[in-house]
Amino acid sequence: MDWWTNAFDAAQQWVFEHAMQPVMFWAGLGNHLETGYEAAGWLLVGFLQLVVIIGLIGPLQRLRPVEAVSDRATIRTDILYTLIHRLGLFRLVLFFAVTPLMDSLIGALRVAGISTFQLDGIWPGVTDLPWVSLLLYLVVFDFVDYWIHRGQHHFEWWWKLHSLHHAQRQMTMWSDNRNHLLDDLLRDTILVVVAQLIGVAPGQFIAIVAITQLSESFQHANLRLWFGRWGERLWVSPRFHRRHHSIGIGHETVKMAPAASAGFAGTGNAQRLRVRRVVLGGHNFGVLLPWWDMLMGTANFELRYDPTGVRDQVEPGPDGATRDYGKGFWSQQWTGLLRVVGKA
């Protein structure tokens, strides 16, 4: 652990001194060098992730694809999303927008005599070991991520943003970061707040994000792979997560309601009829661990590889038209905003 930490610190220092610092001085941002140093860390992590995605996950996709690639244009858009997020551009905006507010809040709490909770100090001598605390934080963040994901599918206004992620019908290793920027801002803000409240060190937070993102890239891959009966219950596989993206399965729940309560008055047999009602919900919300789905009854372990997307992309609505989620980056972002205000 110490060797990896020292090697990363040395590489981060080199990137900062030779790439970030000269640009920041040139741009008149010399008073933000600490932010630049953090950005150098995210840039380095993102570059290493891209190496793994292209060098390892890419060949696996070509070896055992679920489906043939038929829409390379939408995949190119997903690559743009990945570059924006993995190379730290979105993280930099988040840092300037959220971190000052969080620093002010934490400072006010400390002035009031309220200290944040140090999760790695609950068992001195054990949980403060670097690898133990990292595993502990991974589990905690994954639990929080599960409920964030449930919220994205439960609240209609949030689903209108998150549905962009599910609208990719050609899932690949690049699809993880295909999200509306407001959706990402909400999720990442919650995670930053949690990180501050439980005392995660900056280096550990970067490691947690990197592990999570790499696993998510693997889960979204166009890869016919599952981990076996027991492995599927230990870590989220591409098969498990593809089920979450399956049309009419991953993001919907079918409920049966009495006919009368659904607006059908009647007596006798008519009152005993039940109608099928589709509501927001779904299966397989776990980001890293399927444990939360198993505990909450949202796990689906069927060994199937169904088409992905959102039902309203393939089934006409009341107006007889299917929904368009946009083709390019800007059209997808703008259409998402229109969905939130009920204009698309």
Describe the fold and architecture.
This protein has 344 residues and is mainly alpha-helical. It has a domain at 2-67 and 74-226. The protein is 59% helix and 4% strand. It has a two-stranded antiparallel ribbon with strand order 1-2. Mean pLDDT is 88; it is low at 261-268.
List keywords for this structure.
344 residues, mainly alpha, 14 helices, globular
Shape: globular
Average predicted confidence as pLDDT: 88
Strand content: under 5%
Radius of gyration: 22 Å
What level of helicity do the residues show? 55-70%
The largest sheet has its strands arranged as 1-2
Tell me the number of helical segments per DSSP (H or I, 4 or more residues long): 14
Order of helices and strands, N to C?
HHHHHHHHHHEHEHHH
Biggest β-sheet description: 2 strands, antiparallel
Termini separation: 50 Å
| SS-derived structural category | mainly alpha
Instruction: Give a count of the beta strands, DSSP E runs of length 2 or more.
Output: 2
**Oligomeric organization of the protein chains:** single chain
